[in-house]
Amino acid sequence: MKRNLSRETRIALEPRKQPRQERSSKVVDRILDAALTLTREQGTKAPTTLAIAQHAGLSVGSVYQYFPNKEAILLDLARRWLSSFPEVIARRIEVAPPTNREEFRQEVRKLFIDTSKLYLDNASLMPVIEAISGNADLRPIQNEYDDQIVALYAAWLQHVNPALEDKVASRLGLLMMEVGHACRLVGLKRDRKTYDLIEDDVEVMWLALVNPYLNLD
To answer: Which residues form the DNA-binding region (predicted)?
Structure first.
């Protein structure tokens, strides 16, 4: 991932040092937790490094030991958000495959509940995620996780129907990821009722898309 970023971008946004001891890891966690709390409280307004330090109970100098600027902190939060999706999707592969369409619909609903919480709890990070998508230097960061997510969706579909071809499963996985993400971004910019309705619409679209390929009654 790092090789795909320009040298200037890496220098500007990469953490200054990686925590090697438990104490250092806890300091980084305090910084990120403080930044996430403040972004949730302030909405689209990014918190200052000083505010993050104060909320974490640290000096600004301590924060700068690990992050060169507030953008690097938000970028690390975005990475953590992106990295949470593979685990959530993988849970669907760990259970027994559904034997009919209703059981599969229930599995889809469970996935939607888990992933929707990730979006709703981190709505204030969406401008950061959109900025990553629109920046050629930063896009490789999201691509890494996107590839994992598509592969997991494909594996899930093949878990349900082992006869599903790899190319077909990957294509469906890509559509599932892109449609779900784009629609949720739209929903987050509206009110909660609209968001929930869009969620229901996405579920209907997903089921209409994949059911013909799953060989379920």
So the answer is: 48-67
